[in-house]
Design a protein that fits this description.
The chain is of the alpha/beta class. Helices cover 37% and strands 15% of the residues.
């Protein structure tokens, strides 16, 4: 953490702090927030400023606006309502655009202990384009910049890069959430190999999405446990019959090479030995267990009980675990057992002496659904960002606030 300055070490008294948060949360048809985890995760940073005499100007995107102005169904208003409830104080949204004259004026007159939330950043094209003029208006609103939006740290949007660049000699800080993400997904994983017992669990639909992560982790992790639909492409690459399971046939040769590279680098890759299968992709489909090759016409939708026990045994001996991707279609009861077994094993290990890190996105949703989110060491708030860190990819949002 030495290359970053924390909001905890900054005296915000009398300062207006522009905080990039990640409030890209799901809304229902009535415009209500259905999952407030990302809002709750930002509270420590917000209070670290407000409770010490500073004022907060928050900015975030929500959904995928066209960038052509205000869109009522993607307004930050529901977020402001929920945030006000969590903070126990009013959070207003000035104007219909983040850089409107009303927003600039509201920021200028903000008093210590007050907070406001700018309207959806992507209502203006300048955000996605990294526009310096757009960024300059945002930068003019505050005395310091704080990035607490890990979920977009792998993107070079204006609010992530151009704004801190525009605030030249002003403080550039990491928020409490970003600190934790960097600590776990950065420092702790980078030193995990030294102590041994480093296990990566990878799942999800497409192996093509995880190839960079697998290649980056090869030689660093001792064991890689693979489940989810992506496992069937890898099984096919190893010569197994996978029935009607999902398979990315165009990358089979690349997968064979990747598996060979991982093994030669000293990483053991464990694929499912049995499967929960069905004849169709349907939550009400009749399920059965298939050991070894999957029969024609059947598709694997979860790892089987034998594989669960193998994975649980490996995780029980682990010292560091990073999990990115579910083991099956966990949203459906019939195909949830594999993900549930892995989730419980990671939680148990975390409650012992191991460090258990859960990647964002579907993995975080699964941890929440299965009741283990509070029992693991860390649940990331960023799906794409956590995967980018596992890949060793550039993180523009972090680089923009790093010290010299």
């Amino acid at each position: 953490m030495s290359e970053y300055c924390s909001i905890r070490d900054f005296d915000p008294s009398g300062s207006r702090v522009l905080v990039r948060v990640d409030f890209n949360v799901p809304l229902n048809e009535n415009g209500q927030v259905t999952d407030d985890r990302r809002i709750r995760s930002a509270i420590p940073t917000i209070l670290a400023i407000l409770d010490r005499g500073g004022s907060v100007i928050m900015m975030s995107h929500l959904g995928r606006p066209k960038g052509e102005g205000y869109e009522a169904n993607l307004s930050m208003a529901p977020v402001a309502t929920r945030l006000s409830e969590l903070l126990g104080r009013s959070v207003s949204i000035p104007g219909s655009l983040p850089t409107s004259p009303e927003a600039v004026a509201a920021a200028e007159h903000l008093k210590p202990g007050e907070a406001l939330l700018l309207e959806n950043l992507r209502f203006e094209r300048g955000e996605k384009r990294g526009d310096s003029i757009f960024a300059g208006v945002l930068a003019s609103m505050a005395d310091a910049y704080c990035n607490d939006a890990f979920g977009t740290a792998h993107r070079a949007d204006a609010s992530m890069v151009a704004v801190p660049e525009a605030m030249k000699n002003q403080p550039k800080l990491l928020g409490c959430l970003m600190e934790k993400e960097v600590e776990y997904l950065g420092r702790r994983l980078s030193h995990a190999k030294e102590s041994g017992g480093f296990v990566a669990i990878l799942g999800g639909a497409k192996v093509s999405d995880k190839i960079p992560a697998i290649r980056n982790l090869a030689g660093k992790v001792d064991t890689m446990l693979v489940g989810g639909a992506m496992a069937y492409t890898l099984l096919a690459a190893r010569g197994s019959k996978i029935g009607a399971s999902r398979c990315e046939e165009e990358i089979l040769e690349a997968c064979r090479d990747m598996l060979a590279e991982a093994e030669s680098a000293g990483t053991t890759v464990l694929l499912p030995s049995d499967h929960v299968v069905a004849a169709e992709f349907d939550k009400n489909a009749e399920a059965s267990i298939s050991v070894g090759d999957i029969p024609d016409g059947m598709m694997g939708l979860d790892i089987g009980p034998e594989t669960c026990q193998t994975f649980i045994g490996v995780l029980a001996e682990a010292k560091t675990i990073v999990w990115n991707g579910p083991m099956g279609v966990f949203e459906w009861d019939t195909f949830r057992s594999g993900t549930a077994a892995v989730a419980e094993a990671v939680a148990r290990a975390s409650e012992g002496e191991a460090i258990g890190i859960v990647g964002g996105g579907d993995t975080a949703a699964a941890a929440e659904l299965l009741g283990v989110a509070e029992r693991v060491s860390h649940v990331s708030t960023g799906g794409g960002a956590s995967l980018a860190m596992l890949e060793g990819s550039p993180m523009p949002g972090l680089a923009a606030v790093a010290g010299d």
